[in-house]
Amino acid sequence: MLKLFGDTDMDVTPEIAKRYNAGLISMPYSIGEDTIYPYEDFEVFESKEFYDQLRGGLMPTTCAVNPEKYREIFEAEFSAGNDILYVHFSAAMSSTFDFMTTVVDELLQKYPERRFYALDTRGISIASLAVFEHVGEMLKEGKSVEEILDWAKEGIYHWATYYFAEDLNFFKRSGRVSGLAASMGTLIGVRPIIFMDADGKMKTIGKERGRVKAVDRVMKYVDELGDDVAAHRIYIAHCDAPESAAMFKARLIERFGEDIDLYITPLNPTAGCHCGPSSIGVCFHAIHR
Questions:
Q1: Full-prediction pTM beyond 0.85?
Q2: pLDDT range class, residue 184, cuts 50, 70, 90
Q3: Which of 103, 183, 269, 273 is the least crowded, having the fewest Cβ atoms under 10 Å away?
Q4: Where does 75-189 show beta strands of DSSP type E?
């Protein structure tokens, strides 16, 4: 049997994981001396409360999963006779996968008949969620892991994600965005436009002054890069930015019709530690990222 896994940095919730009979690995963040594991230390992510805390000056940090936690999760599957397919967020964005690889190598020596497959989505948040759900649907259709990995060689790059931030202090502190000028944060109303590149890294591609112009800029990329957009699910993730989400929703419906499959979700708290409040992104099927 093949067991599918996802992680919370991909905006996979327990409900989504259950839909695909998947395991869910919780990616932690820290507030002071407390380490918090989403959907383990709480059942429901209270996104407004979390992002209001960030607006009030809270600056949480992220941390890698404890190697022993990986061991506990994966050994339970191997000992039960299951192989594992772990669809995960970009390895280029975290050292946690170095720990994971070490643990998996040790476990495979103990369980040489088992197989472990890692599918790096080269994204985070909804950029990864789109891939995870596609893989889940392929498994439901009876596709083999080899067919899935073959699809992923090109398929993951057909999900493009563009977004903008309103408070650059979080991005600057985390250092996760390439090309983000420190001086940009001092310009009132300036919002950098950021995207996930093919290497699984976040990069700035420009800036706009004001929310409306930032939305227009992102929609420009949807129009230029979109590939049969209306035939695929469109994803919006936001850090307690309902007005921006409503604006994107209206623009997408105007562009592609009311029958589009549009999924709007709060950005998970671990990724939100880097993005900060009021950030918002859109993921769509594209000719390339």
A1: yes
A2: low
A3: 183
A4: 83-88, 116-120, 159-164, 177-178
